[in-house]
Amino acid sequence: MRYIRKNQIGRLAAALFLCLLCGCAGKERQENIVILYTNDVHCAVDENIGYAGLAEYKKRMEQKTPYVTLVDCGDAIQGGTIGLLSKGEYPVQLMNRVGYDFAVLGNHEFDYGMERLSSLLEMAEAIYLDCNIRYTGDGENALTAVEPYRIVSYGNTDVAFVGVCTPENITSSTPAYFCDESGAFVYDFYGEGGGEAFYGQIQAAVDECRKKGADYVVVLAHLGTDESSEPFRSTDLIERMEGVDVVLDGHSHSVIPCQIMKDKKGEEVLLSSTGTELNHIGQLMITPDGLMTAGLLTYMEKDADTAAYVREIKDLFAADLQKAVGRSETPLRISSEKGIRMVRNRETAIGDFCADAYRAVSGADIAIVNGGGIRADLPAGEITYGDVLAVHPYGNTLCVVEASGQDILDVLEAANRDVLPETDDGENPVGENGGFLQVSGIRFRVDTSVPSTVVMDEDGMFVSCGENRRVKEVEILQSDGSYAPLDPKGTYTLASQNYLIKQGGDGLNLFMGHALLTDEGTPDYQILIDYIDSLGGVIGKEYARAQGRIVVE
Length: 553
Hints:
Blueprint: E1 3-4, E2 15-22, E3 33-38, H1 50-62, E4 68-72, H2 81-84, H3 89-98, E5 102-103, H4 114-123, E6 127-128, E7 134-135, E8 149-154, E9 157-165, H5 169-172, E10 187-188, H6 196-211, E11 216-222, H7 234-240, E12 246-248, E13 255-262, E14 268-274, E15 281-286, E16 291-297, H8 304-315, H9 318-321, E17 324-328, H10 349-362, E18 366-370, E19 381-384, H11 385-391, E20 398-404, H12 405-415, E21 437-440, E22 442-446, E23 455-456, E24 462-464, E25 471-477, E26 483-485, E27 491-497, H13 498-501, E28 516-518, H14 524-534, E29 538-539, E30 550-552
Parallel strand pairs: 3-4, 4-5, 5-6, 9-11, 11-12, 12-14, 17-29, 18-27, 22-30
Antiparallel strand pairs: 1-2, 2-16, 3-15, 7-10, 8-9, 13-14, 15-16, 17-19, 18-21, 20-27, 20-28, 22-25, 23-24, 25-26
Helix pairs in contact: 1-3, 1-8, 3-8, 10-14, 11-14
């Protein structure tokens, strides 16, 4: 039976924390197995540790043991200009250079569309693993290169790597990408039935690995630990599974050096996640006598060849990124002063700015921007083209529709269904939802004492909401600067981007099928540039703080 020893620091001086777990006795093997892991890199190729630091540390481990494997738990190729401008190719090339062995598909791996993803999978030297992807269409499956698991032999010890991706992919990427030409969903992730099909599929893969002789099973997951992801969190997986030794996780950007949990049968399982943007490298070690340790480390030495390769790629588009497009009298941030991400659960100044840009450029009555699509701060001082691309890295385009007041009430209710009275638990944000809307031309109050009555279907798409609502006192900005109550039977022009309006992103499908006044217009980053131009090239101090459009009580 496996048991826990007291926490020890061990030999890795750079580790922030290690926890230890004794597994089954290892077969004859003299060297340690070292599994390095990353998650949610989001194109941070030379920030923090960077790929050059990761490459150097991997090289150092390979000098100590022949059994080194590097894995990624999703969201590596999107989230920055190096991904946007190459549609994922440059990050994949860098991952090849560093030497990734396995990876899983995070929701943002799908952001360039299935056809492009298929090409990226062909470029990748890493084997992509996901056991819970299902294709039900009659055409060509773009994901045939994805495998459910791989078993690796390290001497006489066999370790199974099982890939798991979140059913939230459909709504947290672009829903239309998972559909055929008729609009019917042909890709899914076994998300129906409250988790029964999902966990049944994963358990079947784990059991198959055990039957094939796997001594250890390591799940590479892109699930996260956010409350809004229940019942598909990594913690839910551990509690509902058996036969898993370790879960390495991504998606929620959680920093989990090592957490020991109990599985369905009461056995201990290690859970770890590195955070985001290569702030840490994760390291799982299995010793010859079956001792498993997991922890996070920082490492600042760089591999010179990898660093040069990063510079070579960045130089291809550096001149364009450095062009000034304006300046700001104040920094606009997506996080609070203590580093808690706010843009997905509260009104923010940068959210106000983005939504104002959509409304100003479009001339619509109201503008809404999903908080999950606002990815970076804008600095005080000079603002470059690269700064703006970092805020809106997805290349979405402007859409404007006519919407009823009732549609607007419903989308606000859906967008605020996860909001909590507090924004964080002291370390991590809580009540987050990528579909939380930053708004312009409208204001309202959210009463968090009212339980959400929003109903979403098994694919995470909006269905309905009840009469008892938490979004109250909704008012529309008038031409004279005053506000008047929204009329549920009235008609308003509403601006957003194609991700939300046409594709139902984040499950907010209320405007799909509406007549489009603007269809796939200005790119999202250009909207921000045009708005800065309209302000005389200067973002003023009115954006130093959120302007009170969303009051959470």
